[in-house]
Design goal:
This protein has two domains: 4-105, 3-Layer(aba) Sandwich (Rossmann fold); 110-273, Aminopeptidase. It is built from eight helices and 13 strands. It has helices at 15-26, 39-42, 53-60, 94-105, 127-133, 150-168, 213-227, 243-251, and strands at 4-8, 31-34, 46-50, 65-69, 85-86, 110-113, 117-120, 172-177, 183-190, 199-204, 233-239, 255-262, 265-273. The strands form three sheets. It has a five-stranded parallel beta sheet. It has a five-stranded antiparallel beta sheet with strand order 6-7-8-9-10, sandwiched between helices. A three-stranded antiparallel beta sheet has the order 11-13-12. A hairpin with a 3-residue loop joins strand 6 (110-113) and strand 7 (117-120). It is elongated, with a radius of gyration of 21 Å. It starts with a strand and ends with a strand. Residues 117-274 form the N-acetyltransferase domain.
Length: 274
Amino acid sequence: MLEKVVLELGWEPAAEEIEELREGLALYQVKLESGMKERGEQGEGVVYITDRPDAVREKMGDEACILLFLTEENRKLEWGNIPYAVESLEGLDGDFLGKVYQRHRGEPWLILETERLVVREMEEGDLEALYRIYDQRDAADFLDGLSADRDEERAYIKDYIEKVYAFYGFGIWMLEEKSGGRCVGRAGFHMREGFAYPELGFIVAQEEQRKGYCLEACSALLEFGFRELEFDGVQALVAEGNRASEEVCRRLGGTPAEKICWKGKKCLRFVWEA
């Protein structure tokens, strides 16, 4: 859990910027400090906002959680191992910086909650749940299927978390029951080559179907996509004959836009627009 944010900059930000950041952190019970202390004094739960990441790592160690502050000088350098960067302190708060720290720790982000479900990022511990969810006919129609090799799939999960979630800010997430913590399916957004709109994808484990989980999750996700992710539109592809998925899209208010053939499969394309 994020406890402290340390500003380690080669210049002094304006007093009003610091105060705004302090207030944005205080709402989440996170402290703000200026300048690094001795290595042993910082401990866990710290994010360093810095334009000099090498200096932070030299003093605090390679495992320090860093949010890179971009400047004309450092933006010319390679910082591929630092996933997040900003150009201003404006708008930073405890929610965003807490998520930066979670990503550093490999902890899944909570995306949203519905009456019965938690929608969260996937984590490596979900491996067996994924095989249970995908153990059904036509499971991989329009979502990537799973590898028969569990070690290969585990590596794919790690890569997906590090690259897809971090790059796009969205992806296909896990649907977890609030009552028992059981993963009942997946849903979210992904980009399909050749289409402008992000695509809504969903799958619910066979034994969890006909409980309304898919409608409950996808309704909340569409609202989230338009409100928080600022999508202009969303699409979904439904394989011809998949009446259950077609009914879900219609009940979610999707408009049947066209019939197309995707990689040899006839399907109906639904669209939602902002």
